[in-house]
Amino acid sequence: MQKILIIAYFFPPCNLTASRRVESFAKYLHCFGIYPIIVTRKWEKEIKSPSDILQRTSSQIEVIQNDNYEVHYLPYKPCLRDKLFQKQSKIFKLTSKILTFFQILAQFITVKAIPFNNIYYYSLSIIKVNKIKKVVISANPFEIFKFGHLLNKKTGIKWIADYRDDWNTSELPEYTSKNPIVRKIETFYEKKWLSTSSAITSISDYYTRKLNLFLNKPAFTIQNGFDFEINMENNQNYFEDFTIVYNGSLYDSQNIELFISAYLDALNALKDKNIKLLFPGLAFNPSQANRIRMLLTGYEKHYEITERMPFEEVIKIQQKAHLMLMVPHTGIKGIPSSKLYEYIGLGKKVLLCPSDYDIIEQTLIDTDSGVFLNKKESISEFLVNAVVNQVVWEKNSLDEKRINKINRYSRRAQTALLADIIKNL
User: Fold this and answer.
1) Which helix (H) or strand (E) is 162 found in, with range?
2) H or E segment at 4?
3) Is the pTM of this model over 0.70?
4) E strand or H helix at 244, and its extent?
5) What are the pLDDT digits (tens) for 62-109?
6) Dihedrals φ, ψ of 209, to 5°?
7) Count of CB atoms within 10 A of residue 151's CB?
């Protein structure tokens, strides 16, 4: 069996969505004759807020081995910048931002400017001891790509850069609004570090085309997929109220106001009918949680926002829901969101409003899972009819043909694509 190294910052037991992509590579690559050794940082605390990510861990290296893969967990020690970021004072946060800028500059000179640089040095020793010839590096954080560049220069190793998100080709406001000097520096880094990569993977065809043009490297699509078995019996145990679920993160670039406005109209039309909108995990981002609270003021009994919770609990909530909600990023292509694959993996019907006319709509069409509505009136009418005919929604239409379509989006199927790329390097 061929041994490879996978370097990733996020990996279970980290409870962030980012960890699940690399977890699936670890779980399924052995099915295709590949034994992965994963090097990551330690995760000893459940992540309930962004500052939890920056907490110091214990100092010992922990190695967990099983028949199909092994994981090397390295200690994490926050740098001064990260310590200041955790303070509530504005002056500390401002100082943290200034230090971030100088840290970015210092990355040109030394890998030690990256707070988790121990992952690089440890990976170098793993490569030498195990005589590894190929590496997969999954980002973000994007500084981790520097490790691939340095490992290639040091050992000649071939490496694949796995993008979970765009970096400098991103069209999200969080990136486009960055300081232009920082963006220029990071663009230089991205091109320099990726120049030694053998291939690039990302989560959608639109992303891979952009990266191919930007970096002039072979680029392949490995979708996020879902990593659990469809269980039709579990999908029959519905909430008593007609329940709609929007799972996970929300961003300013997503026009959820369209749906909320239609939802309020439907509530007013239904009057005595019970209907509820759930936002599991949205409290992780207080500003977005407050955004929803403001939009639904006066309708508190018809929605619920929770803290982050274990993946298994979120799946159970979604299994009992009648309808799943997707809201695309306005004017931005190629972003499917991990929640899409959870929805279709459970065989659920998904309301996409408005449509992205892109990867989300196409995936929902491919799996017979979607309802696409773009106007408030049509969304409201759809919701009223769905609630009135709730018993119809509770008769799940998961036949063998549809299950086969859905299974093409499983993480095992997507890992098979990665295995082919690794073997063909």
Assistant:
1) strand 158-163
2) strand 2-8
3) yes
4) strand 242-245
5) 999 988 999 999 999 876 666 555 555 566 555 656 667 777 777 888
6) -65, -45
7) 23
